[in-house]
Specification:
Strand content: 5-15%
Shape: extended
Strand order of the largest sheet: 6-5-7
Structural class: alpha+beta
Largest sheet: 3 strands, antiparallel
Distance between the termini: 64 Å
Helix content: 25-40%
Number of helices: 8
Radius of gyration: 32 Å
Number of domains: 4
Amino acid sequence: GPCKKVFHIPCAGMSQAPTGDDDWFCQDCSRKEHACAYCSEYGADFVDVFPCKDNDCGLFFHEACLRLHHVDYKYAPGLIKAGNAAVSSDDEDDDDDDEQNRIPVFSCHAHQCWTCTQKDMIQLEKNERALAQKSNNKKGSRKKRKKNTSIYQCKPGRLYRCLYCPTAYHITCIPPNARFHELAVLCHEHSMTHKLPELDMNDSMQSKVESKIDEALMRMHGFSRNRSKKDKQDAWTKMYGKRGLSTNPFLPGLRGDKFDETERSLLSYIKETALQEQQQQTEDDSPAIAPTLSMLLDGNVPFCLPADIKDEVYSKPPSY
């Protein structure tokens, strides 16, 4: 039908899939009533809600919702609302028809990236480019400069639409306040009020990628693949150290709690002094120990580069 929706066979109330020659319509298409993609309120086709002009879209909208979300549209000439269908007007010169009886024609926001089409950011970028061009002209440089391409412009690429509205993004244009995984996207307006569908991490693409990365790291450190779960955990601990603040997440295999003799003696003196002061203070409102000092007393040391980093890290680039 015109909504372009897909259904599981049991969810559609059928025992088997229809053949290719049979026309099948969902309940909304049979009643000629569809829900607005913005407000989710149902309305009669071509009377209350109107379809996007793209053939493969299938989304319907109220005209008021189009205006509210700044969707550009125009009225189709010769088409007026009549009952539950759009009919042609024979008198094209009839200007007495109210615009409220006209059929809006539009392309919804599902067919353009939200990030690439922000008008205020486009205008801001134009102003910055004009100022930069003006300053370059004043300098009078004769060097041929590289032509800058605009960030906020429509570019090709697949669009990923939000589950609850027509807002769509390129995969590289998803803003930080949106949420997504390999199954669905929640736009910046629905990320805080809705949840993403459950993702089976054991059979997900993300787990497969992480598994390949772990196997590559194991091979780099000389560990074989055919090992039990306990052996892999022991190998992981040997590569990255124990869990806690002493683990270095940026330089795998290096620990952040390596000190020379002077540093160890200083830390030992600080620990003994802090314990003595704590024993002398018996009041309930005694000042709390500083967080860093508390971690020292607990045996946890915040990350810092070890003193022998030059001996363990080969930071020099290869010779050409």
